[in-house]
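User: structure tokens for this one?
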Amino acid sequence: MFVLYPLVPWIGVMAAVYGMGPLLLYPPVERRRWLLGLGLGLALAFIILRWTNLYGDPRPWVQQPNLLFTILSFINTEKYPPSLLFLLITLGPALLLLAAFDRLREVGPLTRALIIFGRVPLFFYVLHLALIHLVAVLFSYVRYGQAIGLFGTDWMVKSGFPDGYGYALPFVYLIWVGVVVVLYPACMWFEAVKRLRKESWLRYL
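Assistant:
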């Protein structure tokens, strides 16, 4: 059995974020100081643990032929299931970005869009999974005449993929941006629903 989303790491992350709730109510300067300190602490813990290769991820990093690939090896950590080092290198920078965004004084179009997504995170997450899977199936049918590796567990059998399967990174980023743009109206609608209705279960979406 291959478990993509084990309970223990993700429940721990959720509990930590819930525990941070009161921190976000601190005065702005103190709040940013805490966010910066926590973010730097997690990032530093990642660097130390990863450098030693002693603990935190099943795959050690190794010296590569050039600096770029060595860096990529250093940050290449296990997401499914998430290792300790994966959580450190994702949550640490996320807290640093949160501290940086907290300094934004002027609310412009980009800031408003980010706020909309931030108010309906689980709603967006569930919708984006369904949409990107649908897009992947459609593209696979158009290009290969079948949905290769997109149902059941056949995606784990790499020998079943044809040569040249997949797309270049710029195209992947284009699809990513397209999915975000397409889901924005739905997220705006659901954010308005949450704002107007007071059922407690809506707070978790």
